[in-house]
Structure formats: structure tokens, C-alpha cells
Amino acid sequence: MESPTHAGDIAVAVSQAYGVDTMFTLSGGHVFPLYDGAVHRDMRILDVRHEQSAVFAAEATARLTRRPGLAVLTAGPGVTNGVSGVATAHFNGSPLVVLGGRAPRSRWGSGALQEMDHPPLFEPITKLAFTGSGADSIGQDVEMAFRMALAPHRGPVFLDVYMDDLFAPAADYDSQTLTPSPLEPDPDALAEIARLITEAERPVLVFGSDVWMDRAEEAARDFAEEWRLPVIPNGQGRGILPSGHDLLVTRARGHAFKQADLVIVVGTPLDFRLGYGWFGGKDGAPLARVVHIVDAPSQLATHVGLAGSATGDLSLILWGLATACRTAGVNPKAYEPWKDRLAEEAAASIASDAPLLESDADPIHPMRIYGELNRLLDDDAVVIGDGGDFVSYAGKYIEPRKPGNWLDPGPYGCLGTGLGYSIAARLARPSSQVVLLLGDGAAGFSLMDVDTLVRHRLPVVMICGNNGMWGLEKHPMQLLYGYDVAAELQPQCRYDQVVTALGGGGELVTSPDEIGPALRRAFDSGVPYLVNIATDPQIAYPRNTTGI
Description:
Layout lengths: L6 H11 L4 E4 L6 H9 L3 E4 L3 H15 L3 E5 L3 H4 L2 H10 L3 E7 L16 H4 L5 E4 L6 H13 L5 E7 H5 L19 H13 L3 E5 L1 H5 L3 H11 L3 E3 L19 H7 L2 E5 L22 E6 L13 E4 L2 H15 L7 H22 L8 H9 L7 E5 L2 H9 L8 E2 L10 H11 L5 E6 H7 L3 H6 L5 E6 L4 H11 L13 H7 L3 E5 L5 H11 L3 E6 L14
Parallel strand pairs: 1-2, 1-3, 3-4, 4-6, 5-6, 7-8, 7-9, 9-10, 10-11, 12-13, 12-14, 14-15, 15-17, 16-17
């Protein structure tokens, strides 16, 4: 039976006007009109097994497509189950809209099922969290949510709507679909940054996720190549310079950051991943000057002294900075010896890894997995990391060949993102390989959503580095106390059988010579397939930071 136009129809129509084509959700009666609206307007409804996966999928959609993602959560526990996903989007600057159900207005205050005032929970981790005013204003409310999510600096917005308001009749709404105007940078700020480059002997350029999210990857690559600056990518900045590029010095990262005299950080916070913005200072040298370039003033670092900064549209900044460098007379030959030294160190580091990437050690060394995987990855493969030690190896040994093809939880470090991210990646990049790298700890958070992959026919290759522990905690506890607690998992737990029980494929690998054939079977299977690889529990990733 065709239902009359209601507020749910209008909410869906506005979402579509902002580029949304998929609603990620878990079934709940408080939001039925939104489902009805999606049916009326032919929007894909993708239902998951845990609300966290719906929000992670919507967030990953935003990060892969650079259009807003939409998650719809039923009231009470449906909404609260999405909090970690919203927090992840907040730290990643992902344009995400979460529409929540809300107990009926007509029953409010009398103890209706799952009655809860949700917005106060989300205020610290959203750009805006609010309750809809009524059926007559649903169009304006949803449009405000999308506009706010897209405005620099992008981020999540939460809107809940009373159940009876959603069911109520509503008039058509003409969405304006206004997008934010690019923020022009201050030319004087760009001139000052160019002056700093003229004085540098050991500059380093860092590209972060917002370079991709701001559609500035072409401007970033052009700037680096014109001025021959060594580049270290961060997050979704990976792939802006492809694997093998002569300016890409990721593998000389430690040396570069310790000896640099100027570090220009574009599109990422000066957080623990970048030593909180403290560079240089090695062997008695002064600390490096630091330049921070971001898409909005709210993102500028305030905890460390900056030698220069610029805010605005990142493409406009990089194009303007290139012009300022020409005016200032920047000469790349002044720092060419430094660039060449970093390139040589990076090449030497890559060469020194070969034995472990081909290791025949038994138990399996985690690096052997990445040696095998790199042989099979296409140029446009989407690689997703969800884990601790095992995924840390991926960050070091997998270098994307194109931008926008790497996903990890970001600075919030929330485990359990993997299945939601995989769902989104398969939808957003239907012709690409999608590879999910799971620690065995992370697998426990969301593996049930393999059922979602199976039901919606979304083939994904999953690789589980299974060392039978919480490696990120076990080894440090041993160093601190000489013992560990709450750090053990089942050795060689059969996560692959969980996947096969849910309708996918999988196998356990315990021998290094079986890794390659197992991965090829996974890629050829055409179904969600988990290669469960038992790795050496004695090997810990040699990290330089704990994030503290």
C-alpha cells in the first residue's frame, strides 16, 4: 500500500540532494518512515548487524567518495551504539549525518520505550547535535545537518526526530543544496611560508587526510614536484605521491623528522602521530620550524609554537604558495643534498626489509604476509586496517599507488571499524580489490557483520594476523611489570570458520609457503573470504610512539 508523503520522505529527498545514495542502518521501529521514504525514492538501504557498523560504513563512504555519508539509527540503544563511530568521524573530519529516532513527542516524559534525550551525548563529538522541530521543518533541519557536516572543517552532525513527527504528513521541500564557498587564504601568510622555505636547508613536507578530503591531491602533488620537497604522507594523504616516487621518503621518516629544520604539515593535526609537532633537535641541532596548513582556523595547532600557518581551501593555499615561492626565489638546489640523502636512506631501508618480507620463519613472521600481499594488489586496491601490531606493519609496508585508497581508524584509534569500512568500500569502489587487514583482537568487535557482506553480496578479502593476544598491550605490560594480564586470546582461534558459518569462505594458514596460494584463492573466490594466518606471538611491532 502506497503511503502518503510524510516527514521521512522529505528527509530522504534532502539527503539525496546532497549526494547520498545509501542509507546504512539496523532495523528499528522509531525510524520506519525513513525506510519508507527510501523505498519511495529508490535509495539503497543497507542493513547491518550492529549499529556501530552502520556509522562506520557511512563514515567510510564519506572518506572514500568525499560526499556526505548517512546513518539511520533507531532510538535509545540504537543511537548509543553509534557513539564510537561518530567520535571516529569527529577525529577524522568526516562529513557524516546521523539521523536518530526519538520516542514520540506525544509520550515524552512518561517513560516510553527507549525514551532518551540523545543530543547531549553527542555535543562534544559533533559539529551540531539537535532535535528536529517538527514535521513541517524536517526539510530545513535535514538540510542544515548536511550543510554543517560539509562546511570547513568537515565533521559529523547528529539529528534526532520524534517518532510521531517522522510519521506525520509533510509538504514537499525544495532543497537548496548549497555548498560552502572556498575559503581564500591570506596572501601575506603564504609569503611568510615561502620566505621560510628560502631559508631552509632540510625541509620536509607532510600531507595528511584533509588534502584528500579537500580534493587538493593534484595541487599537493604539483607543489611537491615543482619545488622538489621530500614528502611524508599521513592517513589518507598516502598515495598522493605513488609508491616508488622519488620524493616519497616515508621509509626515512625517523631521520627526516629528527634532522629537519623546517616541517610543513598540510591537512592533518600535530598530534601523537607527528610527535605533537616537535621536530628536529637531533645531535644538538635546534628544533625545526613548523608550518601548519589547515582548512579552517579551528584546526590550527595551539599547543606548539608555529613559525607560519595558513588556513583555507587547501588547493587555493597550495597554488598560492607555489606562486609565493616563485616570487620569493625559492631554489630547490639549496636543499637538494638533503632530499637526496633522505631518498638514499629510504631506498636502503626498503632493501633491508627484503629478507623479512620473504621470511620462511615458522611460526610465521607478520612481514611475510605483506611481502605476499604486495605482489597481488592492483593499483586501485582499497586497503583497510583494523588492528594494532598487525596493522602497524601494513602502515609501514603497504604504500598505496593512488590517493583515497587507504582507510584506518585515524587518530581516535577505535577498533571495530573494519567490517563497516569494508561494506562502504565495496559499494564505493565496485571494480576495485577491497582488502581488510584485521588483528585477531579487532576481529572480535565486528566479525558478525560478515553476514552483512554475504546478504548483500559484497565480496571482500579479509586477512587476519592471528597471534593469539592483544599484542599492543601484552608486550608493553611485560616490559613494565614482568607479567601481563587481560592480554591473551585463543591461539589459532578459527575466525575463518566464523566466516564460513556465515556463508563466506575462509581457511587457516600456519605455514609461510601457504600464504600466497591462500591469498590468491581469496581474491579469486568472489565471496567474503577470510585468510586466518597464525603469526609468531613473540614478535612485536617496533613502534616509536605509544600515542601517550
